Amino acid sequence: MKLILKDIHKEYERGGKNFTVLEKINLEISQGDFINIIGRSGSGKSTLLNIAAGMLRPTSGLVELNGENLFLKNDSALSLIRNKKIGFIPQGMSALPNLNVIENIILPSYIYPSREKNFAEEVAARAKDLLMRLKISELEGAYPSELSGGELRRVIIARALINRPEIIIADEPTSDLDVKTSAGIMEFFTTLNAEGMTILLVSHDLDSLKYGRRVLTMQEGNLIEGNKL
Amino acid sequence: MPDSISLSAVAKKNIQRNPGRSFCLIVVVMLLSLFLFVGTVLISSLSGGAASVANRLGADIMIVPEGFDPHVDSILLSGKPSTFYLPSYAFEELEKIKNDVGIEAMSAQTFLATLNASCCSYPVQLVGIDFDSDFIVKPWLEISLGHELHDGEIIVGYHVAGYPGDTLQFFSKNLNVAGRLEQTGMGFDSMIFMNRATIAVLAKEAERIRERPLKNDGSLTSVIMLKLKPGFSSTASAIEINRLLNNKGIYALFSKKFVNSISASLITISKILSFSLIALWLLAIVIVALIFSLSLSERKKEMGVLRALGASRGILIKLNLTEAFFVSFYGAVLGVTVGSVLITVFSPGAVEALNMPFLLPSKTKLILLAVISDFAAVVTGVIAALWASVKASRVDVHEIMR
Fold first, then answer.
1. What domain count does chain B have?
2. Rounded to whole angstroms, how far apart are CA atoms B94 and B106?
């Protein structure tokens, strides 16, 4: 797995004026990396993550996943890559309210369902395993509105992992959570990384700095090595 | 059974867990399908009734007692029982002018209304036919019966209670049911046919029971059906008969005018119904589109999440249209079901209220109309949701997920 962001520049137009969010970002993420990007609110962390996940087109620059330029692909091909290779954990509580916990978790597998004979059994087994690992097995029939913030975040993490992606991209995975719950989630990421999962996450929580192999700071549209906050 | 969740299951859960929104959408589509089905059945029934009248009224002109033409309308259209007789000289007068007005054949019929009293099984219109001269009903009766009607034998219309082998009593006389007629959608359905010898006996008895004579001669003729020679216009001949027999208590009724007036009413009703259906259809599209648009605007974050999970724009559109399909399908089936109940319960009342021939389509055609109404309602629902679905698929994921 290799994700390369090369000369990424992003501008937005607000009130008729152009605002530069990302100046010229270069980042290379390899198999087994655990990169923690920190920065103040509005520094462009989420923008960078959305570009890395193929959800936001940069003004210029390229994003390559395993040598394939993501933004040269059409919507169907890019969506398929997002579904199969990238486990995205959005900011906030992003579970679908009309589906229960187990349905939310297995949903990504059924967006492009396989015709293989034991597909449903395999997906269900993976989901149960993730529920167990995230210590939410008893919640599989519950609906998102019945869960606490920490439980819901675990459901979203399980959903991101269900398709066995090559990389987890997480946007503020511990925001709005108490210290203990945040630590539990970050420890789970550490375990995943130890098992070989590549992780790219952004946070403005300085407590998260002790997790991750590499820390980068987003400052005025540029990525700087280390904690510069 | 392992846990699984197909996109159609997601659509169904969205419907189930948003009962208020789903109810509104289902009601709108239900009303559309209900009006489509009932409207098309109504138009079809009226067209069938008019066609039936045109087929059955084989006479070019009907001679009726002066001032009794509305009675003939009622008898033929709704079978409302009535008794009246032509003057005894009617036949002779027509004989005198038959060459001038182009009469080829004449056949007498006798109309006798039964009573709602112990002498009669129920109030109904009795019709006596002169089988020697008849050119209208006889062939039709013979097809259903296979032979001429004997004295004391009757054939009953579709809505008359009585089956072959039964005995019915009218004016204290027992009559044997020899056959039943197919549904015609007009007054024939509520009539009982017999030969003129039988009806003469009943008429005598009717006079005795009523204790007042309804006629003062022995002709017992209510209407005379006329067939014109080729080349003669029924309009012109009817006008000429009325001119020649003025002040003789006889009126020539132009049969085609009768059918034409039904057709004119039918066209008006069809226009009103068609206009209402088009208006309802447009309204349904706007309402469904608005509800879907509002709903999808509220659910932008869900759309963003699905995009983040890898759903393409096409999949999002498919998911939303699947939801629209299910909602429309439930509404459409409900609408046709309610429509079927309404037609069953209210069609007899509608016949009376409209005072027009009304012939419900065959079961096969009804099923076809139901399927077409369902299909049209479902397609309307899906088309209405298309714009909102396409718009929702273009959601800016980055913006929504912040």
1. 2
2. 9
Question: Considering B211, B231, B251, which residue would you say is the last residue of a domain?
Answer: B231
Verify that B161 and B227 share a domain, yes or no: yes
Name chain A contacts of B394, Cβ cutoff 8 Å. Answer: none
What integer pLDDT is reported at residue A108 of this predicted model? 96
Taking residues B99-106, what's their average pLDDT?
Answer: 90
| Structural domain count of chain A | 1
Judged by CB atoms closer than 8 Å, whether chains meet at A102 and B301 is answered as: no
pLDDT in tens, B17-46: 889 889 988 998 999 899 889 988 888 887
* Residue A224 falls in which region: left (phi positive, over 0), alpha (psi -120 to 50) or beta: beta
CATH number of the structural domain spanning residue A113: 3.40.50.300
Query: In A, which residues are within 8 Å of B16 by CB distance?
Result: 98
CB contact under 8 A, B398 and A56: yes
Size of interface A-B (CB pairs under 8 A): 107
Nearest Cα residue in chain B from A114: B6
Q: Is B402's CB within 8 Å of A91's CB? A: yes
For B269, the token pair is 């009703």
Does B197 share its domain with B158? yes
State which residues form the domain around B101: 61-231
- Among B8, B14, B303, B305, the strongest candidate for a mutation testing the A interface, having the largest count of A CBs within 10 A, is B305
Instruction: Give pTM, 2 decimals.
Output: 0.71
DSSP A149-215: HHHHHHHHHHHHHTT--SEEEEESTTTT--HHHHHHHHHHHHHHHHTT-EEEEEES-GGGGGSSSEE
Check residue A202 and give its pLDDT.
92
